[in-house]
Structure formats: structure tokens, C-alpha cells
Design goal:
By secondary structure, the chain is an alpha/beta fold. Helix content is 42%, strand content 13%. Strand 2, helix 3 and strand 3 form a beta-alpha-beta unit. Helix 3 runs parallel beside helix 4 and helix 4 runs parallel beside helix 5. The radius of gyration is 17 Å and the shape is globular. Bound molecules: 6-hydroxymethylpterin-diphosphate. The site of 6-hydroxymethylpterin-diphosphate has 21 residues, from strand 1 and strand 5.
């Protein structure tokens, strides 16, 4: 990994989501069979994704944790068949990350920002791979119960700055690291949109910002369904383009072709 993360992922880059889970909020079960997951990943890369994010544990609101053996059972057969293509591993477990890196993953996407497993920082530092640090208030089982902030943007920015320092102190090079405000992770609809609206306060931390608004329930709620658990593709694309315009570098999405096309047009119009 000789390139900085900025060189490896120019603005905008698309990260395709492949959940090898029975229970993810929008694609649960669709790619639970390894063959389906591999085909989905290859299709996304063909559609213009810069990388595919492989995850074996759902972090949707209310999700129960899975143990390390089950997570490995889900992701290893997929990673084995994707050796040689750009892969990110969506995990907070050092053991899962270690195995994924052996199989060629180039980025560790940790929704706990190195707070979940004390051994993960060392695995990332030793291998020199890229790292995504994400903000979450609470934990998936309960995080949507009653999220509260005095000022969501300054609190998320302070958290990400602190986790960035912790990662660098653990020996991870700063130019390998990107930051993510964690859309939907302990946040109301208004918190999520405010984070995009004031994204300049997060890009001011000096690291590339990842935004994962794709299909999230805030989009369905915005459009009038208070009980929505997902959002539409069109609403996802709108949020991604707005985030890009406000400075996001990597857009984490389920519907790769639509986002790649929309972002190409947005980039041409805004450049
Ligand atoms: N969102 C999800 C999972 N991982 N990682 C980052 N960096 N940013 C995100 O916004 C993010 C993430 C949740 O979405 P999904 O993977 O589709 O669902 P689930 O957690 O239910 O598998």
C-alpha cells in the first residue's frame, strides 16, 4: 500500500456494499450464499465501484452481535474467491481483519473506530492497510432508542479527531485513515441531514470523509413514512450527491451503477 488514501480513492469514489448476512437492514439474505456475494461484488466492481466492502455482521438498529467463528464462516469463502480484486472488510474484530488481510483486503472498515477490539489497531498498524474510523453513539442493539446530542456535528467531529489521534498513536499512518460520521448510528433523521449539511466541519479534520446514507431509514422517513426501515435508491443517490458536493470523498452504497452515473454527472457539473 504505497499510495496515500487520497491518491488511492480520488473524489468521488464509490464503495459497494456486500453484506454476507441473513439480517442486514436492506439486503439481508440476498448475498448470504458465498456464490451470490462474489457475483454481487464482481458486478459492483464492473459498474465502477473503487472497492467492495464485505461484511459478515449486521449493525442495523436492534441487531445482535455475531461471534468471531460465525463471522469468519460467512466472509472467508467470499474473500477467498475475491483475491486480487479491491476489497474492504467491514469488521471490528482483529481476528476477522487479520484473515481478510491475508486474503488481500486493503481496507479495514471499523464501525467502532478501534473501540471494539483492543487487538485491531495492531493488526492494521502492522499491515499498513487503509482504515475507516466511524462514529457511533451507543451500540447497534439500542442506538436508535433515543439519540441525543447538544450539537451533533461538533460532538461527532471531536470524537473522530480523538479516534484519529488514538489510531496514529497506535502506529497507524495518518495518510492511511479516512473518517465517517456514521449515518444512522445513534442519530435521528435531523442529526443525519445536519451532518451532511455541515460536512465542512468534518472535512476540516484533514482526512477524507466517507458517507454511507445508502438505503437508510432516514430517507424513507424524510419521504413521509415514520415507520420506514429503508430508503429508496433515488433518495440515496440524492443524499450521496449532496454529500459529495459538501466534500465527501468515498460514498458507501448498495446500488453502484446509479451512484457512479449520478456522481460522474455531479462531478462534471461542479468541477
Ligand atoms: N453503515 C452500515 C455498515 N457499515 N460502515 C461505514 N463506514 N459507514 C456506514 O455508514 C456503514 C458502515 C450499515 O449498512 P449496511 O451494511 O447496509 O447494513 P447492516 O449493518 O445491517 O449489514
Amino acid at each position: 500500500m504505497t499510495k496515500s488514501i487520497e491518491q488511492r480513492f480520488p473524489r468521488p469514489s464509490v464503495m459497494g456494499v456486500v453484506n454476507v448476512t441473513p439480517d442486514s437492514f436492506s439486503d439481508g439474505g440476498v448475498n448470504f450464499d458465498p456464490e451470490d456475494a462474489v457475483a454481487a461484488a464482481r458486478r459492483m466492481l464492473g459498474e465502477g465501484a473503487a472497492i467492495v466492502d464485505i461484511g459478515g455482521e449486521s449493525t442495523r438498529p436492534g441487531a445482535e452481535a455475531v461471534d468471531v467463528d460465525e463471522e469468519l464462516r460467512r466472509v472467508v469463502p467470499v474473500l477467498e474467491q475475491l483475491e486480487g480484486v479491491p476489497v474492504s472488510i467491514d469488521t471490528s474484530k482483529a481476528e476477522v481483519a487479520r484473515r481478510a488481510l491475508e486474503l488481500g483486503a486493503e481496507l479495514v472498515n471499523d464501525v467502532t473506530a478501534l473501540r471494539g477490539d483492543p487487538a485491531l489497531a495492531e493488526v492494521v498498524a502492522a499491515s499498513g492497510v487503509y482504515l475507516c474510523l466511524m462514529h457511533m453513539q451507543g451500540e447497534p442493539r439500542t442506538m436508535q432508542a433515543d439519540p441525543r446530542y447538544d450539537d451533533v456535528v461538533s460532538e461527532v467531529a471531536a470524537f473522530l479527531e480523538e479516534r484519529l489521534r488514538a489510531a496514529v498513536d497506535a502506529g497507524i499512518a495518518e495518510d492511511r485513515i479516512c473518517l465517517d460520521p456514521g449515518i444512522g448510528f445513534g442519530k435521528t433523521v435531523e442529526h443525519n441531514f445536519e451532518l451532511v449539511r455541515r460536512l465542512d466541519e468534518l472535512t476540516a479534520l484533514g482526512r477524507p470523509v466517507v458517507i454511507g446514507f445508502s438505503r437508510k431509514s432516514s430517507l424513507g422517513k424524510l419521504l413521509g413514512d415514520p415507520n420506514a426501515t429503508t430508503g429508496s435508491v433515488a433518495a440515496s443517490v440524492g443524499a450521496a450527491v449532496a454529500a459529495y458536493e459538501r466534500g465527501a470523498t468515498i460514498l458507501r452504497v448498495h446500488d453502484v451503477r446509479e451512484h457512479v452515473e449520478a456522481l460522474a454527472a455531479a462531478q462534471a457539473a461542479l468541477a
